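REVIEWER CHECKLIST
Item 1: Sequence provided? yes
Item 2: Single chain? yes
Item 3: Sequence as submitted:
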Amino acid sequence: MLGDRIRVHRLRQGKSIRTVASEAAVSKTSVVRLEKGGACEPNTIAKVCAALGLHVEALVSAPPAAANVAVHSAKDDRWYDLVNFAGGPLGGSDRPLSAAERERYADRGKAVPLNLLKSRLPQGRLLSTIIELYGPSPVRSHPGEEWVYVLSGRAEVSVNGIGYTLAPGESMVFRSAEPHSYAPAASPPVEPVRLISVRLDDDR
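Item 4: Structure as written out by the authors:
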């Protein structure tokens, strides 16, 4: 189904429906209708595909993806900057990065390494990542809900200006439309703080 495939590519690129609609110069309603398989003008489809860097012919002829299971292996690790995701993998390296490389690219907290996990269903709404904190992240917000779980170190998650300190094994969930940020509870941290972040995409 064309709409499902467009949604998959949009999610893989980390773009919201609002962003795609703006880049394609179409309404948000048109993008939602297209992804749900509703009737759309061919010109709208072409604009949305162009905004995602896709060719309509390739999408129509693409084989259906396995819809029920998605696995992320260690070889699939690709690290990005949490804030500058559109800049591509850290250092331009299309391969897994060592801990030393990630620390170097983080540049004492100037970048926030994020591993975008491939364990996402083609039509799913869960976006799973691993975040490494060497310093505080910029404040950001986006549609949906977000759940975070601390793997190692102590993290401070701030939501709407209120800080919550989490130890390993502790978690929280919040409306991610609220301004939020992450930081090591200790500064500078002895080791990077590692979080699992799972985002539920409500921007449909």
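Item 5: Key structural point noted by reviewer: The chain has two domains: 2-61, 74-200.
Item 6: Recommendation: ____
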